[in-house]
Amino acid sequence: MHPLYVYLALCVAIAFIGRRRILGFWGNFILAFFVSPLVVAIILFAGTLRRKAPSPPPKPAAG
Q1: Nearest-angstrom CA–CA distance, 33 and 5
Q2: Distance, CA of 39 to CA of 41 (rounded, Å)
Q3: Which of 9, 47, 52, 56 lies at a C-alpha separation of 20 to 30 Å from 29?
């Protein structure tokens, strides 16, 4: 197998792992491609998941 295919497969795997992070799939893919999949993997595993927006407080019951 050609080394470029292995590198691209690693970039896709890292992007898939980081799809729920701040940068999303494509941001992590591009970062892994230009920096290194290993470096981006370390950053991803050291970071946290993206937080969901807080849900609004419940409305008081009319009565």
Answers
A1: 12
A2: 5
A3: 52
